[in-house]
Write a structure and sequence with these properties.
This protein is an alpha/beta fold. It has nine helices and six strands, in the order E-H-H-E-H-H-H-H-E-H-E-H-E-E-H. Strands 4-3-2-1-6-5 form a six-stranded mixed sheet.
Length: about 190
Amino acid sequence: EYMGQEVIVNLDKDEYSSTWLGNKSVYRTRMAIADGGDLIILAPGIKTFGEDSKIDQLIRKFGYRKTPEIINFLKDSLELKQNLSAAAHLIHGSSEGRFNITYCTSKNGLTKEEVESVGYLYNSFEDLSKIYDINKMKDGVNVMENGEEVFFIRNPSVGLWAHKSRLEISSRKGKRERTEKEEEEE
């Protein structure tokens, strides 16, 4: 488990055009980010929130809020009750106030006002991609030129469990458990 202060996730511009898909970066990293930390999502291809106009409208209306807030919206909103997948998405896309989520969109993507209206922080993809150059970063822990340590994920669709170090730890752990069981049997 990383439990670091800053996680950087890259959303390939050809694969991710909405936060509906891009929020894999939120729900697949939430347990690896320290309280008070930052999730910075480099999202040059994000142009909309929902994958269709109805879901997009609901995300714009209710935003990514804490679970109790979404549950309260559900009590009063027939349109949200009729779209429970949207309600679940809004909850899964929230940090529950534990860490900051910053979407870094490009000039032709979602605007600062749009991103902030749904409860996220905003930064320019053009500016942050100069600091976090995905062509120079490797998956996992990186130490930046200023000494800052960040955890980089090139593609959140793959998942944290596929990181090489996780597989090595899992493999060693499995061998250790077998050895202990074998010893008990002897």
